[in-house]
Amino acid sequence: RRFSRRPAVTLLDVFQMHARRRPHQPLLHFQDEIYTYKDMDRRSNRAAWALSRRLGLQSGRTVAVFLPNEPTYVWTWLALAKLGCPMACLNCNVRGRALRHALEAAQATLVLASPGERGTTGHSGGFGNVGGLWSP
């Protein structure tokens, strides 16, 4: 029934419902850290603010995300969803022609990457806990 609703219920809607109802419940356990719904909501709000205010990212712009499996990936995805920006998920282990092909296929106007991925392509800069940032 949820899929037939108009407008459709999204994963962001479900996350925000849980964040309101049970903010202190653990959402993610990574290494020795536990992140609650409230933690992820706050971090994603900060990331969304930085992306929109500092970079001028607007709804509808595709962003390629080149991050390893870590909490930053989750709050970056949430931030982009809150801004209405499609996210092109890039495998952070891909290099060379395969990476170039993935970037071209994504038609992203911005690439977010971890600090360890700097130098893979183009100009790099900083973005809080999301390291490198390139604008193709």
UniProtKB/TrEMBL annotation:
GO terms for cellular component: endoplasmic reticulum membrane; plasma membrane. Pfam families: AMP-binding (PF00501). It comes from the Eukaryota. The keyword Ligase applies. It catalyses: a very long-chain fatty acid + ATP + CoA = a very long-chain fatty acyl-CoA + AMP + diphosphate; tetracosanoate + ATP + CoA = tetracosanoyl-CoA + AMP + diphosphate. GO terms for biological process: bile acid metabolic process; long-chain fatty acid import into cell. Residues 15-113 form the AMP-dependent synthetase/ligase domain. This is Long-chain-fatty-acid--CoA ligase. The gene is Slc27a2_2.
